[in-house]
Amino acid sequence: MPSDIVQGSADYRDAGLVFPPGFTFGSATAAYQVEGAAAQEGRLPSIWDTFSRTPGKVWNGDTGDVACDHYHRWESDLDLMQELGLDAYRFSIAWPRVVPTGRGAVNQAGLDFYSRLVDGLLARGIEPVATLYHWDLPQPLEDAGGWPARATTDAFEEYAAIVGAALGDRVHTWTTLNEPWCSAYLGYGQGGHAPGRHEPAAALAAVHHLNLAHGRALRALRATSTGAPEYSVTLNFHVLRGAGDAAADAMRRIDALANRAFTGPMLKGEYPADLLEDTASVTDWSFVQDDDLATIRQPIDVLGVNYYSTATVRPWDGETPMQHNDGHKLVAGGTAWPGSDGVVEFVEQPGPYTAMGWNIAPDGLYELLTGLHDEFPDQPLMITENGAAFDDVVAADGSVSDPERVDYLRRHLTAAHRAIEAGVDLRGYFVWSLLDNFEWGYGYAKRFGIVRVDFDTLERTPKHSALWFRDLAATHVLPR
């Protein structure tokens, strides 16, 4: 370690830290957020097409119809990635672009797009990291029941086999699911994400069927990929804080629903007993069939970790108005916490905050990485999303100085480096996001990109954070 390192102690603002050889520096996007071309070349609607076109669901009535137009601008976007020195690009494949009705006929034009994308990445020396599912379920599958229906796992396995056969000779890493917590609880319980249902029992059935889809997709990918890809899944972990002396049970409940409902079956082959007990009033879990847990527990080469902020909880006293500051837009009549609604409340946390209202807490990332290492010591980890939305300002010369984002990235990369020094097998870091894009229920109101997108002209402008990240990727040394 060089002698000129500046130690930032508790504020996580170190400089001069050297990341190990082979550490991956990448960036990430998702299909519906950037591609556009929503009704072109055979693509049919997903649940997010339907949801975003439903009045009142998305800020300003925004949709992903055009987004960043990455579908038509992919070559120049890949050139930009190369200029920024990215080692890897994490993208998602749009299920309704490849199998437009969810099952049955394959849309060759859709597969060809992703084949060109993968070839373009490889030609530029960028590793393709492909996510099979980033929330864009084909609408016909939702019409037939969606993720609460077991048949959706059949469809997902078929889709995985199709994509594996087409791209598995060249993809560097396969990721089955992105943040199934959001798909299940926000989509079917709280209702703030597509398809916008408020059904707690359905949310828990979706949890299981997403877990099962992960296991079945891994088997299908391994059977059809002719290269030597690595296999992964990406989870958004909740790093919990307790408010008051009686918060331990509240933290346990949310940890079970948010974290262990996925790591339990995926990495241990079991659902936590306390999760089943906490949710017994909502469902009897009879949708779990013989051999499901064995199917879910498939070996993975790396566990994707998404982290943005922490959450503080306490037991609700049953009298004062309940707080629901869980970092997500609230929808009347829905809950993201089946079995713990009316039991646990989320407490507003101290700042500073991003433009999303999320607290900035790099210590939470360090705690998360070291905690996962302690629980699963043989499991390599990858930070697959970390980043921040801020209200960027374009200068008169067209440049975008975003010191808040640079500081956010510095602090969280410091946390990542400290985790490595503590013995965590951390393989890389993907900044979210490459481009300003369609931010789900917030439409185009929130900007996470290290590259600015003018949504009138679609012009791309690397922000100062992109240039800072370029220097980091080139030198593996945390810039001053």
UniProtKB/TrEMBL annotation:
Keywords: Glycosidase, Hydrolase
GO molecular function (one): beta-glucosidase activity
Domain of life: Bacteria
GO cellular component: cytosol
Any Gene Ontology biological process: carbohydrate catabolic process
Keyword Glycoprotein tagged: no
InterPro entries: GH (IPR017853), GH_1_N_CS (IPR033132), Glyco_hydro_1 (IPR001360)
Signal peptide coordinates: none
Gene3D superfamilies per record: Glycosidases
PANTHER family: GLYCOSYL HYDROLASE (PTHR10353), LP05116P (PTHR10353:SF36)
Stated family: Belongs to the glycosyl hydrolase 1 family.
Protein name listed in UniProt: Family 1 glycosylhydrolase
Organism, scientific name: Microbacterium ulmi
